Amino acid sequence: MPMRNESLNDDKPWWSYGHVWLVISGPVAVILACIVTFYFIANSPNQIVSGQDIEIEHIRSSKTIESGDAPAMMARNHAATGVIPAPKASPELPTK
Where exactly are the transmembrane stretches of this chain (predicted)? Predict the structure, then answer.
């Protein structure tokens, strides 16, 4: 008795299979993401920042370090340079 394979003779159209839409959805999602990214880039360009602007901003921000951030800044500087910062001299107490 010969075996019949009925799955090869399906008369369904290609769009009725779920795996086809799974394969198509990947590239379509990438194309849509590219379009959205291009829209954001075209409608909100970044301002040009020069090296002098960065330096001025760094000077402003270094003068306004809050006392709570001082230990973190010392640790960051130590990690970046490897130099242990010298302790600051405490102010002398007034003598009576």
Answer: 20-42
Cα torsion for 32, 38, 43, 44, to the nearest 10°? 110
Q: Evaluate whether residue 36 is within a structural domain.
A: yes
Total number of domains constituting the chain: 1
pLDDT in tens, 42-80: 898 777 767 777 777 777 766 555 556 666 766 777 777
pLDDT confidence of 94, banded at 50, 70, 90?
low
Positive/negative CA dihedral, 58, 62, 64, 67:
positive
Q: In the numeric block, which tokens belong to residue 36?
A: 């959205």
